[in-house]
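the two lines:
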Amino acid sequence: METKPLGGKQIEVDEDGFIQDPGAWDEAVAKDLAVTEGVNDMSENHWKVVNYLRNYYLEFQMAPMIRKLCKETGFKLKEIYDMFPSGPAKGACKVAGLPKPTGCV
Amino acid sequence: MKKRVKIEDISRRSSQLSTLAKEDFKPLPPPFDKPEATPDFAPLSPAAREKYEGSLDDTIAVSIPKPKSKEEEERLVAGFLSGLEKLFTKENNWTFLQPLLLSMEHCATCHTCSEACHIYEASGHNPIYRPAYRSEVFRRLYKKYVKSKGKLLQAWRDGEIELNWTTVARLAELAYRCNLCRRCAQTCPIGVDNGLIAHEIRKLFSQELGIAARELHDNGSVLQLKVGSSTGMNSLVVKDNIQFIDEEVSEKTGLSIQTPWDKAGADILLIHNAGEIMAWPMNPGAFAVIFEVAGLSWTMSSEIAGYDSINYGLWYDDAQFARVALKHAQAAKKLGVKKIVLGECGHAHKALTVIADRVLTGDLNIPRESSMVLLESLIASGRIKVDPSRNDFPVTLHDPCNLVRLMGVVEPQRRVLRRIAPRFREMEPHGVHNYCCGGGSGFAIMSGHNFADWRCQIAGRKKVEQILNAFKDELDPSIQKYVCAPCSNCKGQLRDLIAYYDLWEKHSIMYDGLVELIVNCMTDVKPGFIEWEQH
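prediction for all of em together
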């Protein structure tokens, strides 16, 4: 597995740049992951999405349904795509330090 | 530019057997008819080329780590040979030996299959994507190492091919440049099944060498057998998610919907592709609305795999296939249901209703039915009342290959659409002659490296052409258009194609399943079920 400098640490990432150990995540890591997703400035709204994903993950060990994410954060899917150009699963989840989503999603 | 590639070139070490250039790809209809109107094909990163076997073309699907020594290469080639031999014995290939043998013995090299293949056509006739290229490589290896047992004269007659790690690594990747749609098999005058051969090559690699696409194996069937679903949902999470969906559809429809769980003695066990629950929740929601309004006796199951109909083994591994099929049947048996009904998932249909016939015997051989058939009967009988004027927008139908060409479920969904969608029009060609969406055989969930570019620009190109042509008189973005795709895997690919070519922003082309269209026009529910926005 490849390692990458993120948030001042060397962290293992898969070939799509998702971090492998969700425990290695912190805000500095998130900021650097955001840059890999073309997000250079994490706004309050970005953090709202990321924190929701993070908290859901810590409770359920997986990503939430996209519809739940939209409902709980109050953002339309299009707004999430505007914030994270690769979308909620491949973009926002990556910044939140979740593993890459699996299955037919 | 494309160059001629001979069968034996696959064994010759070179940086790449073939290259792809956007200018070669088949032009799309306007406004995508110039190469610059479509996104660029991202190159593979130097790190990926360094680490993984990528000497076939300009992408990587399987991510096979490069062997670190000559000994490791030899061990892998020996493993391939051992798998090759096993593939041709009854004990090790009780599923597909007979059709495989027929396809090995009887190719007349007429190349009728080439013109039937959407990947070959879309690539601008790249020689390595001919369905028969892969098959002929494999056929020569079979004749040299299995059939003639090393008799040199015979091997020479059949065309010499060298077996080395380059051949093996390229063959593994090449097995993942085919959607397994089997349009080539349908057109072959003598019934050679090049799709089956691609499947058998994938199987050899998985079962003998542990080489398979990670999305299908580690994060697919292995995860499903461990926690219950390839999405990672365990039984608690899936129930929580379905409760959320019940609340959402109740609010949208004005009905009170509650999905029944683990109801012993129900008539029907409904199994969705669990990806629907995660990514297209209004699909399972719409099923619940229809089943409740129709007053059906039905349930979902919270057993391992009982709430996820996927069976990725269908695409790459018979053992994993059998393990999952057994779980599905056991969930139904435990509840004592009369039949299993499969939601809108093409490969799950073929896996459980057709191929699983080789696995499920005795009291596990529980009747299995397509939701297309049940939905048609509910509408034709008047148990579900519809007002087609609510669906007054252009609709076309995508035929999932597994459901339509490979199972013959052609008309039920069309009879529904003719009843509920006044502006329904067919794609050309359609029905059993349809083209794959380009996501078939697992590609829809594979996006490593630059594979999404390959999938959207080559594998999905024909489908984009068909969709644009189906709506060609109404492309104006003021007219919202609906591609009905009753299959999760196809929907995943359509979502990516629509985003890749910006079809929603440019042309208001959206996609979803069949049940959403049905609920949208049910007189028992509030109007406006379909969500015309990106999702």
